[in-house]
Give the backbone structure.
Amino acid sequence: MVTEVPARAGRRQWLGLGLLTLPLFVLAVDASVLFLAAPHIAAGLDPTPTQWLWAMDVYGFMIAGLLVTMGAVGDRIGRRRLLMVGSTAFAAASLWAALANGPLSLIAARAALGAAGATLMPSTLALIRTMFRNERQRTTAVAVWMTTFSVGVALGPLIGGALLEAFWWGSVFVVAVPVMAAVVLCGPLLLPESRDPSPARIDTVSAVLSIAAVLSLVYGLKELVGSGPDTADAAVLASGLVLGTALIRRQRTLAAPLIDPALFRSRAFRSALALLVVGVFTATSASFLIPQFLQSAAGLPPLRAGLLMAPIALSSIAGSLTAPALAARWGAPTVITTGAALSLTGYLALAQVNVGDPLWILVAGGALAVLGLSPTTVLTTDLVVASAPEGRAGSAAALSETGGELGVALGVAVMGSLTAAVYRLRVADLLPEGLSADTLAATREGIDAALEAAGELPPEAAGQVVAAARAAFGSAFSTVGYACAAITVGLAVIALVGLRPKRTDSAAPRP
């Protein structure tokens, strides 16, 4: 029997890929630029602390909550159509945010941006599956697509800084408008339409359950790490788990489920999704804590800390772009396992870093950790999408993106909580005697609060508090390094066992 070789993509498909990277680039810039524009927006709109937190967080909440539903919508109405609608909505919401005349208006605009953003990622990734049928070309296309996000995060502050120097704060949102206009104008020329050939109506109850479950999980995790143990936040997290369980059970009873349980019968799909969550979880831990170490523990100004993060960002890009060629020669399980070993070395190096050590050790350890994990995110995303039937490509892409969002939330919450717990235990033994109750309480909140409290003390006491806080944070940082090293060992085991070819798993693609 002759096996049909999938046709290779041509010039139109590669030009289409370039177009598909634009929405992801805008999403990355939009996610990173708000931090830079924060002082300008605060001066212009004067939000309360609560309003400002919602303006920052509602964007990510809406994206995470709506991904699964929007992936299913794309399967039914067409991924290109969803991309066109989402790009138009994103441009309109960007103008709304730029012209917001008050905090509530900005919050509403950011929510609309998140809702529109949730249409972009699953539709673009599903279109890549349709456009690139050759396995190696598809993996390369996914790598280019994912690298675009890293480039956007790196360039976001530079683009935002240039705009803020020349224009008002709303200009950081306006930059999305011409990019999305290009997507809408060129999309029909370069992108094919694709949809489920036998679409069914979306189950409304499942859609509501998926949105409520993901929002509860992400919100609960974020609040627990931000404000510490709290009964209300724990209840929100628990409700997310209950709603998620109800969603899974409902899918088994539906003729046309929102999330097809058949996808999870493939060992490759289950393993790839688990690897994606674990890989993003571990990488987020490093991305979350290394800048804090540089600025708070090492005392560097933001600009120098940002420059030292550049090699880590470049290693992420290098790992992503080389993943397809490595996987084509050695296979995805081997590449992911080897990458995990490289990351293990990086995390063990990070665990040895103490305050006062040369910073190149920290940067090298972080770069090794991220370099080893980057192929995992590319190859597992490709495997997740490729494991699903083409008619369900949007749903599979949405599950991939939702897994990534949960990995980020878990990384920040779990490792943030571990850092806080170790810091509190360690700093209590290092603080000098004779401090006031207020100073002790502030110092135990975290390193930033400790440094702020030290500024109000006499020089000798201030020096002791600063030294204690930085040493305690260094101990916490080392603990996280060892924890991430242990997780990468588990990641390698999952790759070796879960992605191993299995004759009885007909749905699994060849890695």
